[in-house]
């Protein structure tokens, strides 16, 4: 016998559960239950076995809430500190050491870059890679990098254009020079 009416199918399932011995294994209550009670059970009926082995959202309710993964990493990382040393480069030394302390709550810090512009607009990039972490973890770590300018590098103030911190999922946090100054972080170095 094949049951095609959904109401009869639900009643048949409820009767089967009520009559099975395994239902009694869950215990019973001797308390008087007074009031109105309801039980809701969703039974998937489908023509494809793929809907039963993994989540099948083909026939999802268009008026229902969209599926939101509570563990999805959709938040950009943040900065806990940024430093550069020395702040003034002499003719003898054209090397600057940079330190970035970055935080991310889920996937951890990915590649990050600080962009500096010379007085005439030349671009210098400082890369902070996961393998350059000097302490901490991917989620709360300190990263080091070094910028070596050529001996004929343009003199004057090289200003931070932006610092882009990216997490492992690709979520970027872009801090402009003004943002860094507001946070009290260094935003330029001088080539003498």
Question: Mind explaining what this structure looks like?
Answer:
This protein is mostly beta strands and 192 residues long. It has a domain at 78-191: Macroglobulin (MG2) domain (Immunoglobulin-like, Sandwich). It is 12% helix and 35% strand. It has helices at 6-19, 50-53, 177-182, and strands spanning 78-85, 88-89, 95-103, 109-117, 123-128, 133-136, 140-148, 156-167, 172-176, 188-191. Strands 2, 4, 5, 8, 9 and 10 form a six-stranded mixed beta sheet that branches. A four-stranded antiparallel beta sheet has the order 1-3-7-6, with no helix packed on it. The radius of gyration is 31 Å and the shape is rod-shaped. It starts with 5 loop residues before the first helix and ends with a strand. Residues 22-27 and 47-54 have low confidence and may be disordered.
């Amino acid at each position: 016998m094949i049951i095609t009416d959904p109401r009869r199918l639900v009643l048949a399932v409820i009767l089967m559960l009520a009559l099975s011995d395994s239902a009694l294994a869950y215990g019973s209550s001797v308390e008087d239950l007074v009031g109105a009670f309801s039980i809701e059970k969703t039974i998937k009926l489908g023509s494809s076995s793929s809907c039963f082995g993994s989540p099948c959202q083909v026939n999802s309710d268009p008026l229902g809430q969209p599926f939101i993964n509570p563990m999805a990493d959709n938040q950009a990382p943040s900065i806990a500190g940024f430093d550069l040393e020395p702040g003034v480069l002499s003719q003898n030394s054209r090397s600057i050491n940079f330190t970035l302390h970055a935080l991310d709550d889920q996937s951890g810090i990915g590649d990050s870059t600080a962009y500096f512009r010379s007085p005439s607009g030349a671009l210098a990039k400082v890369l902070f890679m996961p393998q350059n972490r000097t302490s901490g973890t991917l989620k709360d770590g300190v990263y080091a990098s070094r910028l070596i300018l050529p001996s004929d590098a343009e003199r004057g103030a090289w200003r931070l254009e932006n610092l882009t911190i990216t997490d492992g999922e690709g979520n970027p946090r872009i801090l402009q020079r003004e943002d860094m100054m507001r946070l009290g972080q260094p935003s330029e170095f001088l080539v003498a």
